[in-house]
Amino acid sequence: MNLNKKQRKTRVSFLEEKPHVKGIINNIVFMLWDSVCFITGGNDHAVVLWTEKDGDNFWEPKVLHNSLHSSAVMGVAGMHQRQIVMSADWCHGLTWALKDALHSFFVFRVLFLDS
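^ that's the sequence the OP posted. Answer follows.
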């Protein structure tokens, strides 16, 4: 996607693929890797990697996981040096025990994309 191109009718465009099955997308992070991509985390407990294919405005989703989190994915992050994605959910079961000390608790999952 080249945001510097001049287009007469620049409008909001919706992605054709819909890998998040319900709810909203809580977090979007553009990665600083060689390939143009971004990662989304949503209320459906899924983390999705979107890569640009065949030129402008065509994005191909790949569900990295949708069953590792017990609640909504609240944050995603990645490393520049390696293709590693970290995702965090809000863990309701452990929040009560740590409520006074931390006011919140996150469970992190780490995925290694390069093998």
